[in-house]
Amino acid sequence: MGLAFDPANYAAQLAEKRERLCSLLAPYSAPEPEVFESAPEHFRLRAEFRLWYEQGQPHYAMFERGDKHKAVLIDQLPIASKRINDLMTPLLEACKADPLLGRKLFQVEFLTTLSGEALVTLCYHRPLDDDWDAPAAALAQALNIQLIGRSRGRKRVLERDYVVEELEVAGKPWRYQQIEGGFTQPNGGVNQHMLGWALNAAGENTDDLLELYCGNGNFTLPLSTRFRKVMATELSKSSVRSAVANLEINQVENVTLVRLASEEVTQALTGVREFRRLQGINLSDFNFGTVFVDPPRAGLDPATLDLVKGYDRILYISCNPETLAQNLDELNNTHRITRCALFDQFPYSHHMESGVLLERR
């Protein structure tokens, strides 16, 4: 259950999260966490709304977790970016006015950026054909957005299915292709704090970095400046495509990108299996001194835990402090926490991101 939206109480909620993280990390003698707060309003760059129809008229709606029958009708969402809020009313009014846009429309998804771009996906319970394109193109031009139509098994893209974000890390701008439906950090301001902290914690290195779960290269790009070479791994095909594009956009040339799951990386590095996807890549050319991990909520699996313990330094970003603590039960035998941080990606909820730097004892 989420916490109530109350900017006046934001500092108290953040303090509670800090205490919770300190409690979870206390058994491992962690230092005081560096705390990176969020803007109290308009911090979320993504939002998804179902449409709820009353007397034939659509309204944006959200639902309590686990109850899809009791709709809360809204016309603004203060945690969402100002760009999303500015788009909500004119977009819905246009869909009400034109049956080609509004008929059997059941969901609207927004993806915005700190750089000002916006992509909107309209989801339908009917097939889309060429008739949809003209009014959709007019709407996209009027609102200065990228617009996509989705129906079962179909996706109509007018111009492109991504936005380009620009983030500043340690004074340097980085550009990111963020594709519709792909994972991106929802809180752009806090994401910049995370990237800056990771860069600072990594320090300057003359050896190489192994990165697991690299996604679209969110951390890969800035971290590439702190190591001789980087081998970054990711399983999702769409994330790999975006990561390749982002390396090219930013002219990063010291990163080798490999589409492997974390357990496959373990098998490759330990010589258990050979992978066709590694053809042309000589693993012995790498001298990994640091491993960077940003795993899913389940944390690191046992095989990956065994792998990362083999490196002198482990930089671990976690979206679930409970599974981070479980992993630390094992990692604490070989490594000690020298830095830790709390990143408040999700104000007014119990979720939080954290980071630890572990160094060999």
TrEMBL record:
Which residues are responsible for catalysis?
C319, C319 (nucleophile), E353 (proton acceptor)
- Entry binding sites for S-adenosyl-L-methionine: Q185, Y213, N218, E234, D294
Catalytic activity entry? uridine(54) in tRNA + S-adenosyl-L-methionine = 5-methyluridine(54) in tRNA + S-adenosyl-L-homocysteine + H(+); uridine(341) in tmRNA + S-adenosyl-L-methionine = 5-methyluridine(341) in tmRNA + S-adenosyl-L-homocysteine + H(+)
Q: Which UniProt keywords apply?
A: Methyltransferase, S-adenosyl-L-methionine, Transferase, tRNA processing
Q: What is its EC number?
A: 2.1.1.35
EC class (word): transferase
PANTHER family in the cross-refs: TRNA/TMRNA (URACIL-C(5))-METHYLTRANSFERASE (PTHR47790), TRNA_TMRNA (URACIL-C(5))-METHYLTRANSFERASE (PTHR47790:SF2)
What the protein does comes down to: Dual-specificity methyltransferase that catalyzes the formation of 5-methyluridine at position 54 (m5U54) in all tRNAs, and that of position 341 (m5U341) in tmRNA (transfer-mRNA).
Question: According to its UniProt record, which protein family does this protein belong to?
Answer: Belongs to the class I-like SAM-binding methyltransferase superfamily. RNA M5U methyltransferase family. TrmA subfamily.
Q: What is this protein called?
A: tRNA/tmRNA (uracil-C(5))-methyltransferase
| Organism for this UniProt entry | Halopseudomonas sabulinigri
Phylogenetic classification of the source organism: Bacteria, Pseudomonadati, Pseudomonadota, Gammaproteobacteria, Pseudomonadales
